[in-house]
Amino acid sequence: MAGLPEKDLVDTGGISGMIAPRPFVIRRIERDTADTFTLRLKSGSDRNGLHFEPGQFNMLYVFGVGEVPLSISGDPAKPQFLVHTTRVVGPVTGALHRLKTGDMVGIRGPFGKGWPVDEAEGNDIVVIAGGIGLAPLRPALYHLLAHRKKYGRIVLLYGARTPADILYRRELEKWRARFDLEVEVTVDRGDESWWGNVGVVTTLVPRSPFDPLNAVALICGPEVMMRFAVMALRKKGMNIDDIYVSMERNMKCGVGLCGHCQFGPKFVCKNGPVFSYETLKNLFNKREI
Amino acid sequence: MSMQTLKPYLAEHPFLQGMAERHIELLVGCASNVRFDEGQYIFREGDEANEFYFIRHGKLALEVFRPHKGGIVVQTLKAGDVVGWSWLIPPYFRHFDCRAVELTRAIVLDGTCMREKCNEDYQLGYEIMKRFAHVMEDELLALRLQLLDIYGGTT
Amino acid sequence: MTNKARRSLHEPAVISTAQLAQFFAGLSESGYRIIGPTVRDDVIILDEIAGPTDLPVGWTDRQDAAAYHLERMPNSALFGYVVGPQSWKKYLYPPRLELWQAARNKRAFELKQKQPEPPKLAFVGVRPCELAAIEILDRVLTGGEFSDEYYRRQRENTFIIAVNCTEPGGTCFCASMGTGPRARHGYDIVLTEVVDDSGHRLLVDTGSEAGLSAMSKLTAERASNEIQSRADELLSRAAGRMGRSLDTADLRELLYRNIENVYWDRVGKRCLTCANCTLVCPTCFCFATEDTTDLEAHRARRERRWDSCFTMDFSYIHGGSVRPSAKSRYRQWLTHKLAAWHDQFGSSGCVGCGRCITWCPVGIDITEEVCAIREHDPAQATVTEESNI
């Protein structure tokens, strides 16, 4: 159904692609780790694909099953391919996992505010990712590397549970080989084959070669990891308004109308998912907000 | 390398940032230069702990040996890190194996020598204890986080 | 609504109940369905009415925390009660609305959207607190970057006949919230009912061109100074007779600094998380989407329906709910309504209608809860201790 005419997609809200999903076709599926996979999708109706900012997310609809918010993990300079990486955690991601090349999914988006890659120009960049938190940061990394000269040192600190859980392994190896990018990968639990770092990702912060007073930090991972990463960065002397985190809440409508993703006064779907830590500091450590 | 040439290396090691010069001098008196080849064990679980190390470059791994599983790495340490605090705490025994993951250069401090100096000069002793407390806090924090198994997901 | 509309567009008029019936008939002829309060199952609800006789004539409501009942009045007032469990949100923002349908075609699917054209509705008996609630919904649903089109179109198709409150209810606190008992704007016409020795009269003010044009079909008598000052007197008396009150001073900051106040535990133990308060609230706007398929999995549809922050699913992310405890869900609702709303939409989310107090099965009272937080505010305690020294 690659040629589905646009006129059939009447939009309830009059906002293109915001209320009614648009058709995308799965072109490739990669099994990244035992429980994560990457879908490469192509728009069924728009040759130009889907323009997005690093850090934005889409709602993915599987026919008859439902919808799930997923961050975009492809290259913002190649919008003709829409890339999503996810883990099987519920019925919709389970259904996505069962789809085959050539199957169709519905896409609404892109939604939200992404990483401050433009504002961060001229600074060192420290990217801290935990687990599948690397997926929403990958577009930012693509952008930073494509505009390498505009930034100071770029550091990627990535933590995974075990060596087998490392996401985008080949790409990380390629990046490690670059002279203009510092990549440190660590695992919580090593095995016989692992010769790399062992320890949580926050242990990489103190020795990381960036200037804390002229750096911008981009963090994504489980909330606990982000809290500890913020502490480690502050200990190193970073200002909290230079630290950005990507929040996860129950995004449903994507446009700040349904109320589900509220985090204090913020709607994560439209005010986030990326926030300056400064704006969240009174809420970030509070329970059940 | 003579003892005096070690002084600038010690002075710029993150662990000793802000330490008074006379204290650095005291440390230099207990220090010497070492190198470990890839795969070499620096110490073994149960060994007497009479040294600690300032890593200059390279990487060390702390391991626990488990039958049928081999050495399980619980922590890796590298340039800027300090290795070993068992020399501070009686009865001065090692709790882990420590292996060089790659060629590693470090400055080793003689624990017996350091204990004596710390006993003679409580101010030095306090400075050293304060810095190790910091390292212990970092490691305890990291360990607790590791225990949470945060990436595992809850489904 | 412009500032100009705060005053009557023409001289205030006086009409009889018979003329009100004519007025309704005129609206019906122009294609409006008349929606107003009416008695059903011992409760005043909102439904389509044929004329003033379908209104709860001679009825009043007695309301308190977790208590509601109707009583006969000694007169035949049309509007001698306040608000029932339903609000106008039911019509402007339907509890269920289909967003789209999809049909499977082999491995692909095709989407179709058929949304009904909102009907022309005339709301009768909209109270000042409810006008304020509609204004809030206007900002929430149409004031941002993305707007709710169904709501916007229904609003355009709605004629509002407001009624000022001369008899506040037991759980009312609109005076505290600055939303009543007199309507200031947001109506096409507004009535003040005066039933006394001089008879049964309805004072009419108009607030819009549509109101003016509808009124021009009646030959209404010009309002005398006597009835105008009588209405003023009734309304200022009503302002002083609210069943509840809420101190809004510093409220947003009070709640933000008390997110971890232990007092939330106490209300959390009483709250059943039944969601009644959010369903009766005239400004609660959260919705959920529901995807359904036919048994053969050929057709799917998405519907949106009212949702509540009191349900466990509301904040679900993989692994569990962000707010598993009753305490956190009550805190979310109250803090959103009275504090976060200011950040999000520039006003309080509460209009003082009192529905959440009346319809809470265990009688949790939002005004009492705010009082309790205020009393248990550690910041205030310090100040008092210091000032005592």
Low-confidence stretches of chain B: none
Strand residue percentage of chain A: 25-35%
- Give the CA-based shape of chain B: globular
Question: Which CATH architecture of chain B would you pick?
Answer: Sandwich
The end-to-end distance of chain B, rounded to whole angstroms, is 57 Å
Give, in spatial order, the strands making up the sheet with the most strands of chain B.
1-8-3-6
Structure, explained:
With 289 residues, chain A is α/β, with parallel strands linked by helices. Chain A folds into 2 domains: 6-111, Translation factors (Elongation Factor Tu (Ef-tu), domain 3, Beta Barrel), CATH 2.40.30.10; 124-246, Rossmann fold. Chain A has helices at 91-98, 134-146, 169-176, 223-235, 268-271, 277-280; strands at 22-31, 36-43, 57-62, 66-71, 82-87, 104-111, 124-130, 154-160, 182-187, 197-198, 215-220, 243-246, 262-263, 266-267, 274-276. Chain B has 155 residues and is an alpha+beta fold. Chain B has a single domain, classed as Jelly Rolls (Sandwich). Chain B has 4 helices and 8 strands; from the N terminus they run ααββββββββαα. Chain B has helices spanning 3-12, 21-28, 111-120, 122-148; strands at 31-36, 41-43, 51-57, 59-66, 70-78, 82-83, 97-100, 104-110. Chain C folds into 2 domains: 8-101 and 114-239, no CATH class; 251-388, no CATH class. Classes of the chains: A alpha/beta (289), B alpha+beta (155), C alpha+beta (389). Chains in contact: A-B, A-C, B-C. Chains A and C meet through loops of A and β6, β7, β13, β15 and α11 of C.
